[in-house]
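Hey, quick one: can you model this chain's 3D structure?
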Amino acid sequence: MSDALLKTPIRQPGFPDTPPMTVRSHDAHSNQSRKVLVFAYFRSGSTFTSATLSRLNGSFFAFEPLHVLYEFLMETHRVLDFMNGKIQPPLVQGFEGAYKVSLIQALLTCDLYNVDISTLLLGFLPKFSWQIQHFQECIRNAPGSRDSKYSSSCVDSLKQMCISAPVRIVKTIRLSMETVGRMLDDIPDLKVIHLIRDPRGQFGSGARHSKRNVQLFQHKVCNKVTNDVKTRLELEQRHPNSFLEVIYEDLAHNPQHTVQKMYDFLGLTLPPYVIQWIKESTSAETDDNGYLATKRSNSTEAAYRWLSYVPWNYVVFFQTRCTWLLKHGNFPFFEKKEDMKQFVIPCRPLVR
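Sure thing. Here's the predicted structure for all 352 residues.
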């Protein structure tokens, strides 16, 4: 990458003329970036939730960094190589926990020489991160031999973007809450947004309707989320003010109010351009934009769409097997099928 390109100011796509991000006055003396972990689950609205934060000017965002670990590195039994020359043997299923912690912590603390090269170059990271896109462009344009492909100047440039970012965000669906507890011991100023969705809607959004799938989903999702919530409640005793629970249905029903709570939790001011993006992304003025979606033509209707097609016997199954979680999230219970059909979806307040 040329020196001229390295020195060129980089603007975040979509908001070329937005003002600098504002920080609450009581935190203005701090020069530390806020470190945010969006802890979520499959089909729980995590892409949109994390996007409401990553839209901040200059934010550093790592989208699903563990995807490459599970879908590529462990499947192919590849060694992990790093920019600092370190090589790590292939990870074995069930023994990858320590590396997951170190990888997330490296991204949150800008220790990018301890992020394996495959994670930086493959997977979902560049999809929602303009800094990673610039990093990969730098790698592609690195002059010279194959060795210079992984030019340290590219990593140094990315690291500087990370260090200077007012907020660093990692979003993942591949952690346990026990792992987060270990992270908080090393990063005590870490802020964790724990995103939860009604498991019936989660199932309806992402699974084919079969008896095997509903039982597998109950085991992998209901039990896991329940354990995570209970673990988090214990962690909150040792780490007060480190967690914010966000219910996806609340976000879909009243997005501006819920996002405002998230920004308050982080001590940030919610800028007008993010409010405008929320309005455009959750109203009937736009179209849904696919599987990894940040836009819904009607976010409230999308959150409760499962009511119209998830079979009644599966609803009963979840209400029996996921009772604790449903009560914790204050999700509606239905005594009979007719109650589900007559359920009134809340009217969504306008985003102004």
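One thing worth noting: The longest strand covers residues 190-196.
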